[in-house]
Design brief:
By secondary structure, the protein is α/β, with parallel strands linked by helices. The protein is 30% helix and 22% strand. It has 16 helices and 21 strands.
């Protein structure tokens, strides 16, 4: 990110303001800002023509390979039942949808509200001849037939489903990074840049250090990347000497992030670890309240190991029991960190985020996708579900993300969902959990429009403060600059 030519942006307007300003960018930083006509221009002068300007946007939670590979899988996101899923899969196979390593892969089903559950018999009847693996929309379970199970060396019960630990291990083993062309990563990064994105937090379970170093070297350079590590590679990165915040690549785009630990499951799979049983579950059943994916004792061991090596932590906790236990662990160890998702939180736990210096990394579009599932499976508790407003009022620092491919890698969608709590023709869901626009924007950025700050900038065709819910969701982005260079330009 060196040897950049200076650049002047002329006639821009800060969000919510009428007067125009000029901005000079030099050496990857904002070098000067002032009312239009008062700043000596340098380098190329780009007329912004009164468009609005703000700090570049970040997505605080992505699975980039899964995001890239999604386009090559059968799209199941619009399906509403087991029969609908299987009809879509059968149709795709009959129409010659390409196989991936000899298997038909699908993505996006959500079975939390199906009237008829998934079954091995049904998927066998629909597709008996080709190995089929269908990935749930939340990435926490998979549905497959016997041909796929035999090929992958797993045993199936009568549902044909694998959930949580066994599925996640298998899914990680299906990593097709090597089979994906570099162009797929480049196109996905460029598409993100076209929505104003300058950086992502990568939570793919992979050798993110080596993979992102090579991707940037080979031209995938439209984004900054904070690369996480999972427990199975923790000792490897400790031995290599990596610490949170270390620069990984030669261009200054990739930094080493945090240890990712998954403590519980998900709402859709009814495996999020909760204090109360799920409706219809026998309270005496060991999984009636969800599941503890990583024992709390092991979580504490991992956190200590990471902390002592200079590595921060980001811990997945969705259910209210999981959030309590993770908060307790951070409190006991006296270390800061990030809680990923924080979807269901006890009232007495909201204040603890700020008290303990913990960031709540949340995905607002999940609230829109899962509101009906939450109303059913967390009945009576949804006033504290996806409770971004409660977290903010309690003083917690928020970061917004998508969990792509679970939701679109587009911060404007996250911002709209966080501030409106509705989409399409539906009423606002728990309006008290909306957050102000300035809070949502701050939670989607890592810099400000000030001299000395990184020249990571988004230029929009509308003022966010004058935009309604739907106008935020499809905010026109005229340009994105990363370290003072255009990664997207339509002006």
């Amino acid at each position: 990110m060196t040897d950049l030519s200076p650049l002047t942006l002329r006639g821009a307007r800060r969000y919510g303001e009428a007067e125009t300003i000029d901005i000079v960018l030099r050496d990857g930083l904002i070098a000067a800002i002032g009312p239009s006509g008062t700043v000596e221009p340098e380098g190329e002068v780009v007329d912004v023509s009164g468009r609005w300007i703000g700090p570049g946007l970040w997505d605080a939670h992505v699975h980039f390979t899964q995001h890239v590979i999604r386009r090559s899988r059968v799209d199941l996101t619009a399906t509403t039942s087991a029969a609908d899923v299987l009809a879509t899969v059968r149709r795709a196979l009959d129409e010659g949808h390409p196989l991936l390593n000899g298997m038909l892969m699908g993505y996006g089903f959500r079975d939390g509200l199906w009237g008829e559950p998934a079954s091995l018999a049904a998927i066998e009847a629909a597709v008996p001849e080709v190995p089929v693996v269908l990935v749930s929309g939340d990435l926490h379970c998979g549905w497959m037939n016997r041909a796929a199970a035999a090929r992958l060396g797993v045993d199936l019960d009568e549902t044909g489903l694998l959930r949580e630990g066994p599925w996640i291990e298998l899914h990680h083993g299906l990593d097709q990074t090597d089979a994906l062309p570099l162009s797929g990563y480049r196109e996905a990064a460029d598409a993100a840049a076209s929505r104003g994105v300058v950086g992502v937090v990568e939570f793919e379970s992979a050798d993110n250090v080596s993979l992102w170093r090579s991707r940037v070297r080979d031209g995938v350079n439209a984004l900054r990347v904070e690369a996480a590590v999972w427990p199975d590679r923790l000792e490897e990165v400790i031995a290599a000497g990596w610490r949170t915040g270390d620069q990984i690549d030669d261009q200054g785009l990739v930094t080493f992030g945090r240890l990712k630990v998954v403590v519980d499951g998900s709402l859709n799979t009814r495996t999020a670890w909760c204090w109360d049983p799920y409706p219809g579950m026998d309270p005496s059943h060991p999984l009636s309240c969800g599941m503890e994916s990583v024992p709390v004792s092991e979580l504490r061991r991992l956190l200590v190991r990471a902390r002592d090596a200079g590595i921060g932590a980001a811990v997945h906790a969705i259910g209210d029991r999981a959030n309590t236990e993770v908060l307790d662990a951070f409190a006991e160890l006296g270390m800061p960190g990030v809680i990923e998702h924080a979807q269901l939180v006890r009232e007495e736990d909201f204040a603890r985020f700020a008290e303990l210096g913990l960031v709540a990394s949340v995905q607002p579009e999940h609230a829109m996708d899962d509101r009906d599932i939450a109303d059913h499976h967390w009945a009576g508790r949804t006033g504290r579900a996806f409770a971004f407003g409660s977290l903010h009022r309690a003083g917690a620092e928020l970061r917004l993300g998508s969990d792509a491919p679970v939701a679109p890698l587009d911060p404007w969608i996250s911002i709209a969902a966080a501030t409106a709590r509705s989409r399409d023709d539906r009423d606002v869901w728990h309006p008290e959990q909306r957050v102000p626009l300035d809070v949502a924007l701050a939670a989607s950025t890592r810099s400000t429009l000030e001299v000395g700050q990184p020249a990571d900038i988004v230029i929009t065709g509308r003022d966010p403060y004058a935009s309604d819910r739907d106008e935020l969701r499809d905010m026109p982005v005229a340009a994105t600059l990363l370290g003072g260079r255009f990664t997207h330009r339509d002006i």
